[in-house]
Write a structure and sequence with these properties.
Helix content: over 70%
Shape: globular
Order of helices and strands: HHHHHHHHH
Structural class: mainly alpha
């Protein structure tokens, strides 16, 4: 709110423009979304926005319940794994799967103990998805659909693996934590 409020007050139209654009954007082949594969006839705006929002909310709620259960068992909420799983769920189930979203996920491979094979699967599936637009003039429907499904299956598997993972770096021991701040 503190960051957005000044922009909202001084240029509401400019502040709202990206949100309006995304709300009206169709879940077509250019969105690289699972919704363009599962429900290609959904129109922009209403239906696809509601379905993707409900799917994201459900997935994130499952991540939070899993985190709460793990926190009760282990004595603390798994903040970093839950963040990674939330990002993976959002990218997999959101209306748009954009190339820069890979940049949101990659840091978690350094921060969490997730087998390197999954890192490689993620990169291969993401590269295959985006090759549909760079290597071909027009995405081939069957190839594009398989690339979208593969990328989203890998992302959802990563969400599960993230919730089962541990941070790659252990927290500082209490005596060093006191020195650090």
């Amino acid at each position: 709110v503190a960051v957005n409020l000044p922009f909202m007050i001084f240029d509401y139209g400019g502040w709202r423009a990206p949100f309006a654009f995304q709300a009206l954007r169709p879940a077509d082949v250019s969105a690289n979304s699972i919704w363009s594969v599962l429900a290609p006839s959904m129109t922009a705006g209403g239906p696809v926005n509601r379905v993707s929002a409900a799917a994201c909310a459900t997935g994130i709620a499952l991540v939070m319940v899993s985190g709460w259960r793990r926190g009760r068992r282990d004595g603390g909420f798994p903040f970093l794994p839950a963040c990674a799983a939330t990002v993976a769920v959002f990218v997999a189930l959101g209306k748009v799967h954009s190339p820069q979203y890979a940049l949101w996920i990659l840091p978690f491979f350094a921060l969490l103990r997730i087998d390197r094979v999954w890192w490689q699967l993620f990169l291969i599936s993401d590269l295959w998805l985006f090759a549909q637009f760079t290597a071909f003039d027009h995405p081939q429907p069957g190839l594009h659909a398989s690339a979208v499904v593969l990328a989203d299956v890998v992302l959802l598997a990563l969400a599960v693996l993230a919730m089962r993972s541990e941070p790659a770096l252990e927290p500082l021991p209490p005596d060093l934590a006191d020195l650090a701040g």
